[in-house]
Structures are given as C-alpha cells and as structure tokens.
Amino acid sequence: LIHCVHLTDDGINKLSELVHLRRLELKGVIKATDAGVIPIFQNCRELQIFNAEGLSLITNSSINALARFSGESKTILNLKLCFFITDEALLDIGNHCQNLTALVLSDCTNITMKGI
C-alpha cells in the first residue's frame, strides 16, 4: 500500500481483519492516523514488519499499541519521518520488542539522544 495517498483510516481499519498479516507497508499513506493503525496492532499479533515511513500523523499512542499488542513478533520497524514519535515511544519499543533486528528513526525530530 506504499504511497496510497488517498487511503484513509476507514480503509486501513479493514486490514485489522487480516489477523495473520505478517508484513505491512504503509509508507507514504499520509492520511493514516492513530485511529487507523492501532486496530491493526490490536488484532494482527503476528505482524513482523511494519513500515510507517512518512506517517506523519501517528503518535506515541500507535507505537505504544504496537509494542504492547504485537511487540514480541516485530523484527523490522521503520518510523522514518514520523514527526510525533518521541522518546516515550522508544521506551515502549525497548520494553516490548525484544526480537527487533532493525529500527529506522531517521528524521524523527522529536527523538533525542536521551531516548536512544
């Protein structure tokens, strides 16, 4: 679903029905918000790879849900250009995503050295 710029939270929510989903690429889905992605994390517990590059409207709430509901299965997480993600989200990732092998935080302007 890379660069599906017209995709809204309503459409994204439908993906939460795919409970065995393992990889989700939402790069550039600029209308995606917490309301769209949180149900995916709540229902798709096998999700291993999540590309959220450019999802500039998601916040720590999404990352908290990702970490708490499906964190153990995560291996790759791309949060590049997710401007509202802060150090608080990194704490959730560190506490719940033990199998993570790649984490991209480029241009996440609210993440500090303290969080890293």
Helix and strand arrangement:
Blueprint: H1 9-14, E1 23-25, H2 34-43, E2 49-51, H3 60-70, E3 76-78, H4 87-96, E4 102-104
Parallel strand pairs: 1-2, 2-3, 3-4
Explain this structure to me?
By secondary structure, this protein is an alpha/beta fold. Helix content is 32%, strand content 10%. The protein has 4 helices and 4 strands. The N and C termini lie far apart (29 Å).
Note the main attributes of this structure.
116 residues; alpha/beta; four-stranded parallel β-sheet; 4 helices; 4 strands; globular
Strand order of the largest sheet: 1-2-3-4
Order of helices and strands: HEHEHEHE
Q: What is the helix content?
A: 25-40%
Task: State the shape.
Answer: globular
Low-confidence parts, pLDDT < 50 over ≥5 residues?
Answer: none
Mean pLDDT: 96
Total strand count, please?
A: 4
Radius of gyration: 13 Å
Helical region count?
A: 4
Report the biggest beta sheet as strand number plus sense, adding barrel if it closes. Answer: 4 strands, parallel
- For this structure, the quaternary state is single chain
Q: Helix/strand-derived class? A: alpha/beta
Span between termini: 29 Å
Q: What portion of residues belong to β-strands?
A: 5-15%
